[in-house]
Amino acid sequence: MSKQPRGLGRGLGALIPTGPAVVTETPASMTVTLPAPEPVVPEQPGPRAVMGAYFMEIPVGDIVPNPRQPRDVFDEDALRELATSIGEVGLLQPIVVRATGDGKYELVMGERRWRASKLAGLSEIPAIVRSTQEDKLLLDALIENLQREQLNALEEAAAYRQLLDDFGATHEQLATRIGRSRSHVTNTIRLLNLPATVQRSVAAGTISAGHARALLRLEDPAAQEHLARRIVAELLSVRAVEEIVAVGDAKAASAPAPRAPRAKPAEEPALRHLADRLSDRFETRVKVDFGRRKGRIVVEFATIDDLERIIGTMAPGSLQPTEG
């Protein structure tokens, strides 16, 4: 079975060392010679080793449910919805397990994510393997690493979400420990509510976190996706997106009652067919209108380079400099 997408970011997985720590023992009879002191090197940014936990990807078949799990009823529709999301963007929040000593792992947190991952067809699942029962110790180490590591906006949102859900952290606690405002934590977590296509754009860096937060003011996912495509095509600034959203809301609030639709002209299907052919030919949106006395063709473009490309398609060679 081919692996499904691993996700737009590992979230807490990016904050935890990969693989278990290796401990070596020194025999009592061995004489140890200490090396000469080395120059002190300034501490580099990045995650520190987390005591009592490490990150790895585990085959889903090697994971068994926790027999002490108090929740034994899972909403099937909600599981299928989560499985669809995992199939599109991967699992953003690793589950938490503990090794049982026989090559198997027992779930500690995240049974719903584990079940949905199996429905999505994942062969392996990202997991935090915990070897300590001290939740506060692990939580403190994760928050410290979150402050040190440079995560993209989606990784940061997934890490916040998991710290809140699995480890009992609060918005205030996270904000205080990482030196951010509470609203920053809350608004970052809300990025996980965006459609999968928009989340991929944020993770790829084609849309910034500021753009994404502006898109959250739109309630319609289709409208969010449409405006996200405009951001990429027209290189819109965050301020421009905020103004578009605000003006759109104002128009929606003050819009008059819709009028009865006028009868469509008989030739509209033919005009639509012609517009579609021109759109395919010029690789952009083309509108064809026909009034009582004359018609009009509108060809949209995003940039000057895009305009030159369209003109070159309409009239090859017309943009070449003339000799004389």
UniProtKB/TrEMBL annotation:
Keywords: Chromosome partition, Coiled coil, DNA-binding. It comes from the Bacteria. InterPro entries: Chromosome_partition/occlusion (IPR050336), HTH_ParB/Spo0J (IPR041468), ParB/RepB/Spo0J (IPR004437), ParB/Sulfiredoxin_sf (IPR036086), ParB_dimer_C (IPR057240), ParB_N (IPR003115). Residues 129-163 form a coiled coil. It holds the Pfam family HTH_ParB. This is ParB/RepB/Spo0J family partition protein. Residues 56-146 form the ParB-like N-terminal domain. Belongs to the ParB family. PANTHER family: CHROMOSOME-PARTITIONING PROTEIN PARB-RELATED (PTHR33375). NCBIfam families: parB_part.
